[in-house]
Amino acid sequence: MILVGPSLGAAVAIDFAVNHPEAVQNLVLIDASVYAEGTGNLANLPRIVAYAGVYLLKSLPLRFYVNVLAFNGISLSTSIDWTNVGRLHCLFPWWEDATVNFMISGGYNVSDQIDQVKQKTLIIWGEDDKIISNKLAVRLHCELPDAIIHQIPDCGHLPHVERPSSLKVFLIIEVNGGRWKKHHH
């Protein structure tokens, strides 16, 4: 399979690819959040404080602000729409418990697994990402044994939402004629 991991999903994808290499042929990492060393001091919060923080995380004002950071130059009406879409997962009845448990568990820390990735990897990054620095894109490209990187201009943290046609072009190039074609079974 080709495993795609956007943002924190990239950490999950790396962990899965390293621990189950037979299941993953290629990786696509999109604005990868892979250098945060878990949840840090959040793991030590009392549960009541963690729940208060999680409640704030799903609030409309904070979600709207995150959308302003995540997307590059979108209209107010689009930002409101994407804020509503972007908080849908927060409305599941289990979301608060799952998020608190994730925080208290220490979260994901895959930085020591990056150099163990054996799969050919495509890194996609929005040039104007205000959430994760482009410097980390370059670092990831250098640390992955077999990776290429494409930066998408005029794009923020979520290229698959903001510029899906650009992302599609890079995927088609890799799958149909790029480095991956030679190794398909």
From TrEMBL:
Residues 2-164 form the AB hydrolase-1 domain. InterPro entries: AB_hydrolase_1, AB_hydrolase_fold. Pfam families: Abhydrolase_6. SUPFAM superfamilies: alpha/beta-Hydrolases. It comes from the Eukaryota. This is AB hydrolase-1 domain-containing protein.
